[in-house]
Amino acid sequence: MHTQTQSFLGSRAISQSNAGPDVESIFASTTGHSAPPPPANMPGTGFVPTGWSQRPLGTNSLKQYEWIATRSKTNNGWSAFSSPVLWAQFSNSTADSGDREYIFQRTVGLAAPSTPVTAQMKKFLPVGWADDPVGINSLFPFEWTATRSKTGTVWSAFSTPVLWAKLAAAGGDSADVEYIYQRTVSADAPGTPPTAQLKDFVPGGWTDDPIGVDSVYQFEWSVFREKTDTGWSAFSNAVLWKKFREN
Which of 50, 70, 98 is CA-nearest to residue 9? Predict the structure, then answer.
């Protein structure tokens, strides 16, 4: 079995580095499983504290953990950054591990759901939460995740929910952001596709618009790229767009 990065939180249907005009996310990697301290905060859009990055850098055998912190903008300005939560872990698995679990909830608005209750049982699902990401749509444009870990025989409390995915403003491309899609038969996310300095570039195996899921292709994924002054960026990591559910 090959070793790979396990990514726990989505990018976009949202942007990983800038989750929208009212939410910003930053990233930091560590060699150990201890979360970094909450990052410093400054007013102004796009502020990145020392030691943090606007985009996920990925994990490797040395820096095995990557963390995310978010802040939101209100009428009073930018909030403080949240306490960092685990974004990705260098791992052989793409599902819950024996000592860490993730749950998901969709909302109609950008306000995060309340921190869910926990219980001392494996695979515990609080009311209103799902074991896997359901996927976002025009009715539920936001999806959130919370995590908990097991130490010895005791499960911790769930973390404060953080944004997993956000629907693009119009559900599709804009002049400076492009989205592409791919379906899979399993819950394993596809690899990050290559980019090219062409407008509306669609790599092999991807489509310009979502096709939809069915009983065979039960998962559809989305990646995006942004246009900057220097050209088109690389595509983001894949995030679940839609998941098939039996009636």
Answer: 70
